Structure formats: C-alpha cells, structure tokens
Amino acid sequence: MRRRPGISGLQRQQAQREAFSDLGSVAASARQLAMEEQLQSFQSQLAQFALKHRADINSQPAFRASFHKMCRDIGVDPLASNKGFWSEALGLGEFYFDLGVQVAEACMASRLETGGLIPLDVLVRRVNKRRGTAVSGEVSIDDVKQAIGSLGKLGSTFKLEMVSGKYLVRSVPGELSPDAAAAIDVAAQDPDGAISEDSLAQRFGGGVGGLVRAREALESFMRDGMAWVDGQREPGKYWYYLPASSEKWSEVL
Amino acid sequence: MFLYKLTLTPSGRPLLFPGEVEVVLMEATDLEFPSGAGGDAANPREKLTAGVLTLTTARILWTSTSAGAYFVPLPAMRHHEELSRGMFRTKSPRVRFEVFVTPDVHPAVQPTSATGHVVAAFRGRAGCDPLVASLPGILAQRAWTRLPPTVWLTSPPPTSSTTNGTNAVTTTTNNSSNHNSSTAQQPQPPSEETATFFRASDAGVAGILRRQERDSAAADRDLSEAFADLNALKEKASAMVSLASKLKAAVARSEGGADDKRATEDVHGWLLSLGIDSPVTKESAGALYHQQLSRQLADFLLVPPTGDKSSHGAPLTAAGGMLSLVDAWCIYNRARGTALVSPEDVRKACELWPKLGIPIVLRTFSSGSLAVVSGDFDDDVVDAKLLVLMASDDVESARSTRPLEEAIRLARHAGGLRSVGVTEAARVLGTSLELAREHLLCAESRGWLCRDDGGSGLRFSYNFFRDL
Amino acid sequence: MAAFLYPPFYAYPPYFTLQPVEETRAKQVQAWKALIFDFCVHHNIHTVSADDHADGTVDVLPDPSSPLFVNAAIHRALKREAKVVFLDALVAEGHGEWLEADKHRCRVFFKTLAEYVSDVRRWVDENALHGSVYTLYEMAEATEIPDEWKRLDRDVLHRIFVACQSSGVSSVFGGENGEDVGVKFL
Known about the structure:
The complex is a heterotrimer of chains A (253), B (468) and C (186). Chain A contains eleven helices and six strands. The longest helix of chain A has 32 residues, at 28-59. Chain A has helices at 9-21, 28-59, 61-74, 85-90, 92-109, 111-114, 120-131, 141-151, 178-188, 197-203, 207-223; strands at 117-119, 159-163, 166-170, 194-196, 228-234, 237-241. With 253 residues, chain A is mainly alpha-helical. In chain A, helix 1 (9-21) packs across helix 2, helix 5 (92-109) crosses helix 7 (120-131) and helix 10 crosses helix 11 (207-223). With 468 residues, chain B is of the alpha+beta class. Chain B contains 14 helices and 18 strands. In chain B, helix 4 runs antiparallel to helix 5 (258-274) and helix 13 (422-429) packs across helix 14 (433-445). Chain B is globular, with a radius of gyration of 29 Å. Chain C has two domains: 8-108, Arc Repressor Mutant, subunit A (Orthogonal Bundle), CATH 1.10.10; 113-185, Arc Repressor Mutant, subunit A. Helices cover 39% and strands 15% of the residues of chain C. Chain C has helices spanning 22-43, 80-92, 113-126, 136-141, 147-150, 154-166; strands at residues 47-49, 70-71, 76-77, 96-98, 105-108, 133-135, 170-174, 181-185. Chain C has a three-stranded antiparallel sheet, with helices on one face. In chain C, strands 6-8-7 form a three-stranded antiparallel sheet. Chain C has a two-stranded antiparallel ribbon with strand order 2-3. In chain C, a hairpin with a 6-residue loop joins strand 7 and strand 8 (181-185). Chains in contact: A-B, A-C, B-C.
C-alpha cells in the first residue's frame, strides 16, 4: 500500500462515511484513503483467518472445496494472482500453481499415448504418483479441477470436457464433435475401452450412412493420436482402443 | 563478517517471520568472506559452499545440508554490486554485499560506521540475475518495517558475554514505538553489542502453524469452527468486493487524465489483491505488479542465463522464437521455484508487452491456443522450411533458412507427393509437436500445403493445386 | 535369476499391432525397443529372431515360459512386420545388427560396438597386454579377461574383435576348418 500524507481523524471519518455512500462526490484522495483503510482491515481479518485455518485449507480437501465455493459465491478468484491477499495469506499459490505445472507436465508426458485426451480420474492418479509422498500429500479430484480451470486462462488448450457423465481432460487444442463423443461413450461400455467400426456404426443407425460416420469418427481419432488399433481381437477387423474411454490403462498410458 | 544462525523448522525449512515472504531462491550458491574468515562466529571459515541463497522481504537466508543455516537482515544492507567477471569467463557470477556491522562483526540493523563484506558466488543455472533483478525493489519496499516490532531483538551474540535480559526488555518497548518511522531508530542498549536474532516466541507462532498442519492432516478434525470463521470472512469479503466494484466502475468512467494514471494503477492493484478481474484496457496498463511481471517475464524469455556453459541461450530463442503459453508459464514457474505466478498473471503480463514496447507478441492460433512469439519471428521462414521438407527428406537441408521463392521452386520441382507428418515437422522446425501442428495448419490455410488422408495420421504435402 | 519384470504396456493389446499413425507408432517403437533390450540383457540373449515360425511358435528362446513377443495371457503376439520395425530401431541405435540382408535374425549388443572397442582398447592399455595372443577358447578360462566379456555369446565376442580390427586395436585370425578363432592385441 502506498503511504498517504497524514490526515486528521475527523477528515478520515468523514471520508469513510462518504466512501460508502456516494463515491462519485468524494475527492479522490479521501476516497483512496478510505479504501486503503478498509483493505487493511480486511487483510488483518484474513490474516487472522489464515493463522487459524491455513493448515486446514492445505490439508483438508473438503474445507478447501468449501473455501472455493465461497469465493465463487462472492465473485472473487483466489487464484487470479499470487499477489492477491488470498494467495499471500493462505499460501494458495504454492499449492495450486505447483499443481498446475504438475498437471501440465503429466498431460505432456502422456501425449503420445493419449493424443491429449485423458479421463480426469486417470490424470489425478498420475499426478498423485508424481507427487510421491510430499508433505502436502495427495490431491483430490476437486483440486485438479481447480488447477485445470486456472490453466484454462493460458488459452483454450486446457479444458474439462464431459462425456456421458464422466470428466475428460483435454490438453491439446480442439473440440469433441458429437460423433466423437458418441464413440467415446460406446467404447466406454467395453471393459477395455475399445470399439469396432461396426459397433459404432450401429450407434449411428447402421447401414452405409452409419458406417461412413463411424469410419470418419474413428479416423479422426486416429489422426489426433487418440486411438490405438488392435488387429488381433477379431480376425479380419480392426478394433480401436480409446484411452479416453477407460480407466483400466492408467498404468500404461 | 559473521552471520546470524537461521532457525529451521523440524523439516529443515527456514523459519520465516510472520509476514515474511520468500522472493527468490538461488541454488548452488557459495558464500565467500573476503576478510579471510566469517560465517559462524563459533567456527569461522573462509567460505561456505553449496547452499541455497534465498531472498525474502526481510532477509537474505543461506541454507545448506552440511554447513549450517544463516541469515543477514536486509536493513543491514549498505550496498551491493555485481563483480565483473574478469579475464576468465569460467568464473561464476559474484555479488558482493557491503553490510553495516557491529563491533563484533555481526550485521547491524541500523547504520554504523563499520562495514563488513560477504560475497555470494552463484554456480546455478540462472547465475546471479534473478537476485540482482529483485534485490533493489525489495530493498526499496522496506517490508521489514511492517513486521511485528519484536522481530529484531537485541541480545548479545552467542560468543560474547554481556548483560542480556534487561537489554531485551528496554529495546522491545523502544522498538515498538519506532517501528513505523522510515529510518530504523533502534537505540543501542547500554552495552555495546547490537546483535539480533529471532525471538523464541515468534518462532513459536510459526512452529504452531506447522504443528497445526500436521495435526490437521491427522484424522477426524472438527472443522465446525473453521466453517464458522469462513462464514464470517465471507461477510467481510463480500462488503469489500462490492466496494471495490463501485471503485472499478468509477475508475472506468473517469479514465484518461494523467493524474488519474496513478489512481488507476492503485485501483487495479486493489482489485488484484481482492481477486476481482480488472482487464487491461486501451487506456490503462493495469496494476503495477503486472507491469513489473511483464518486464521480468520478458527478461526471462529473452536473456540467456549467465554462468551456464551448457545453456542453449534464452528460453524463447532456444525454442526457435515461439513457445506455447502453457510451456512458457511452466518453465517460468519452474525457474522461479517459489512465489509462483498464476496463469492469469502471466497472461496479463504478456498482454502488456505491446504497451511496454517489448518485442514479444502473444499470438492466438485459429485453434484457440496461445503462444509467445519473439518479434522477429517470420512465418515465411517456417513455410520455407516446410516446403523444402516436402521436396526431400533431408532434414539438415530443410533446417537451413532460405528465401520462400527458392523453397517453393524446390517443392514444385520435386514433383513427388512426399507427405510430411507432425513429428518430422517438429524435428525440422525445432519446436514442440503442438506448435509444429499449428505451423502445418497455418501453412495449409495460407495455401502452401494440402492434407494427405492416408490413414496414418495428420500429414501434409505440397499443394500442387495452387499452381494450376 | 530373478523373474523378468514386464513393463505395463505389455498388457495393452494394441501394442501388439503395428500402429499406422506416425506419432503413436513412435511411442510404440520406443517402448518395444527398450523392452527387447532389457529382456536380452536380463536373459543374456544375443540373437533375436524376427520370423514367425512354421510350427506356429513365434519365439525361439531358451525359456519358453518367459516369452518376448507373445503375451499368452491376453492372446496377443507380434507379427514379423512389427518385429522388424522394432529391431530396426535397435540397429539404428547401434545396439543391434541383422545377420542377413533380408532380416531374419538380429544380433543384440548390450553396448554399442564403439563402446566395446573402446573398452577393449582401455583394457589392453591398462594391463599392458600389447602383443598378447588368445584364442576365444583360452579367453573363456583366462582370469585377466573381464567377466563381462566371458558372459557374451562367442559369436558376439568374435564380432567385437572384428570391429576392434577395423580400429587397429586387435587382429583376428583363424576360425576356418574347425580351428578356433585367435585374437592378437596390438
């Protein structure tokens, strides 16, 4: 905070009253002084809160989630800046931005296997593996979601997508077309997360039309590196394994 | 010059004062004592090696696994200078600190007539730049004057033997009345010594915090009080938000005058502190913090790290002039190590570059992904490389820069339908797979390349159709 | 000897089909190349066959219960085309050599030939063995010969010394008509 030259007690009270009533008619310097004093008072209260509960925020995922909900309710983003009061008092930056870097790195590490589309659960598992047994311990799904929301500010590359009630994390630019989402859904019924052209064609109504749509959808996945082929599951036919459709392969991918 | 012992937490981390913030962390740093011996008064040495030097808002800390942990209070700092490297470029960058000292050669927190020296030798990747860049600002802020007054407590150093208890009491009261003045007017105790170290009960507060964290992690913690406190906080925070929003609106209406510039900066700073969005507009440059970050980030991206023989140069240059914003954010935070910056901070910092005349641009691709691009980046150069790659699989040849017309001729002449995928393009362009893909798509939209649907992934070949 | 620990990808069926997409294949090749190498080092195997065999088996190995290219548990096996691609990658790195131009068997080197040659040169210098002569048979018993070399396949050892010949570290002779191969260290 910048220090202002001294101002008498009476003037200060006056300024404060007016600051709350009609800002437009108050001189700028008085307005600023009032604001700074209010901010300092808020900062103290936050510091008190932090002294008592910083440990809880860092170690209790449920409380952390409530905290974030509170911030959303009042319209602030505690992760907007590490210069924010929230971040400074509660040490959120170290936790979330570090996590953000870990999330980005985990996604990058699995890019060649998954094409950049991975189930959220699998990502959380991979991130926790990377974190090992750090003091801050394991992170929850909510934590990773927060981190991804934060990463989303770096362009439209990172985002959460939902397909049939399950979250997927996308770490490459692009969008899931409705047909692609349908393919992921069908593949998710298979224990290995795999799908054949025929089974997908059925979903699209069968016939030539269905087959063409299925082929296009699967070729699109292949082009994006989001599908692996298996020629030995059924003679004469290819099956397509979609990493986005199954959590079974979190060790592999 | 002798240093004060730094108290560590049970897990070996420095015990910070309440409100003290770590700013810069420099690994692989040695401390050298030009006078011949220094460091621990009980065990003086010529140098302390292989430690981590941390700049905080109140002190310079030095920690190591085997040589102990020490600190120098920033108010004792008289002067610092980067030493010239001399003839032999292999020498690590060094910074010499001149420090006010007490008669027994410990740092003094008010100006004295005697000074001592300590030299920090930076053997890490980043050289001394992060420290040298941050130190002036930290010294100017004088954040230590806002610490609880009892932080600097006078008490005899461990090696000397004088009266202590009473000194502590007198100096405490004196300190508290003076702590807000601009020059630290800490009166000398009756005895000569003016050593300072962190008081045990302050250690207790931070110690309590850490114990709390451990207990919290333990099972079944009753959080009802925490939730009650959270609700109380919510009320106050809500009031702050509405006040700040009114200010934001007032500022938006009145933006323009030169007078208002600082006022606007202030408002943006407050909004930043509260976590309310305050977008950079044509007129304003946003919060001072973002302006500073903008410059720091540009320096990080464009200036090669000193003292690192194996470096390939500055991060942006090493990446061929283009880095995805996500990658830039990741490597910047990894380099900072501590006091990490948020994605929004970095985004805003990037958006300020044109305003600050910095030659880096934030570019949006049609896919929506963002990249930081150096000002002299030339798309034609990229297109030319890709076109040469269409002509032959000679990666080395494709890497060299040549005029676009020549590249077109080569591609056309090659006649074949050589198709190129993302992996190969990335290798030739020296960039990440994601950016290579963006470049291929850009070249496609500019009409040089067309897609090749061979079923073996995303591939492109020279677009002969444009010649028809 | 401890059981060989297969990497996680070995249980993922698509890894047994050669991937058509370039980026995906790159990952597949890298994974298999490493597996082949580690497997050979663990079992001290020096030759790997790329062929699918007439009797239906696809591996010819000392221990059929520890296969390389077949995972019976998931009913998958690599076909020849894939094996050639992966072994080619090993060769490109200097850790393999095809024994035939049409690629049926691949010799696997635990170190590259260049590394072996430099090892030999260093050993000759350190032990002042310039001018000494050994037959490969003698080497198996001589105490001054490093254990690492003794564990190598005879053919591989021969191959290494031939490579050493090109670098002037040794000269190789004999080996015809049932004669043992001799090596003179220069």
